[in-house]
């Protein structure tokens, strides 16, 4: 792949995906990268956002309010970052002539489908977090109809930060058995694989090869949290029988979770990119990179 050079800005650069984005961009060797953490850039300050975006060709927004349950009681605060903050970014990108790649979520959907959600499926969030993210999506598509890219992801895990895979590996050392929900379907996605995909999309955008709009940045295939936990154990040389299935009823959380979060990937074709790999293959690669895969 020929990498466009250009100057890239990564917001949320201290988070799980943000750190992977900075690494993925460094390995391509082409672009100059500005890594802005939460401490460096307050997305709710439009003047700061304008100044930060100036001089950049591509902005990848990995900054977000990610506390799903906390958003139920603090929806305004979540929307200030996930909604209005994204609008500030989009306006700044319009002024700077920059492409915006904005990371969104499966939570914009109600989760009651029985086949993968296409990119243009009607949205209807179940919770405050989903509503806040939808405000951001709508800002990108409204303010940057030709240069705005929304990449929805889901079930993200990675080396850095709190996520399901890290939690399973930690609890494996602390408990004999783990009860994991088996009634939510989704696509576990490695944050580094998503970072690489965002870099490829940014390249295609700069090269005029990728139409603006919505893309689904999740692994192919599908499983449940229970299926994912068993796979983590099996690949790491632990006994998957230590994972026991349970239902969402046993884990009452403030925010409702979608039961079905499987996303379709048809639009990648328009950008000349294949769908992302199967979740199980991706998980094996992620664990192998960390030296956690048991060799038979």
From TrEMBL:
Pathway: Carbohydrate biosynthesis; dTDP-L-rhamnose biosynthesis
Keyword NADP: yes
CDD domains: dTDP_HR_like_SDR_e
Signal peptide location: none
Coiled-coil blocks: none
GO biological process, one term: dTDP-rhamnose biosynthetic process
Residue ranges of domain RmlD-like substrate binding in the record: 9-288
EC number: 1.1.1.133
Gene Ontology CC, one term: cytosol
Gene Ontology molecular functions: dTDP-4-dehydrorhamnose reductase activity
Keywords: NADP, Oxidoreductase
Protein purpose: Catalyzes the reduction of dTDP-6-deoxy-L-lyxo-4-hexulose to yield dTDP-L-rhamnose.
Family under the similarity heading: Belongs to the dTDP-4-dehydrorhamnose reductase family.
Protein name as catalogued: dTDP-4-dehydrorhamnose reductase
């Amino acid at each position: 792949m020929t990498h466009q050079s250009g100057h890239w800005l990564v917001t949320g650069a201290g988070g799980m995906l943000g750190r992977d984005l900075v690494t993925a961009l460094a390995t391509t060797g082409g672009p100059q990268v500005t890594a802005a953490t939460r401490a460096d850039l307050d997305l709710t300050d439009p003047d700061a956002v304008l100044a930060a975006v100036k001089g950049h060709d591509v902005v990848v927004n990995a900054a977000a309010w990610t506390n799903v349950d906390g958003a139920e009681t603090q929806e305004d605060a979540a929307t200030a970052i996930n909604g209005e903050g994204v609008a500030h970014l989009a306006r700044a990108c319009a002024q700077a002539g920059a492409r915006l790649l904005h990371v969104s979520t499966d939570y914009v959907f109600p989760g009651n489908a029985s086949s993968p959600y296409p990119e243009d499926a009607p949205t209807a969030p179940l919770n405050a977090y989903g509503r806040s993210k939808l405000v951001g999506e709508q800002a990108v598509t409204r303010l940057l109809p030709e240069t705005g890219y929304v990449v929805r992801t889901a079930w993200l895990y990675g080396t850095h930060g709190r996520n399901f895979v890290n939690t399973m590996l930690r609890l494996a050392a602390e408990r004999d058995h783990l009860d994991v929900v088996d009634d939510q379907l989704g696509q576990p996605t490695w944050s580094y694989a998503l970072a690489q995909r965002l870099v490829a999309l940014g390249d295609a955008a700069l090269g005029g090869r990728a139409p603006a709009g919505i893309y689904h940045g999740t692994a192919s295939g599908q499983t449940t949290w229970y299926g994912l936990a068993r796979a983590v154990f099996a690949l790491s040389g632990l006994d998957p029988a230590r994972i026991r299935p349970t239902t969402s009823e046993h884990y009452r959380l403030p925010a409702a979770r979608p039961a079905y979060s499987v996303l379709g990937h048809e639009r990648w074709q328009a950008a000349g990119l294949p769908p992302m790999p199967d979740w199980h293959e991706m998980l094996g690669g992620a664990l192998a990179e960390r030296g956690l895969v048991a060799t038979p």
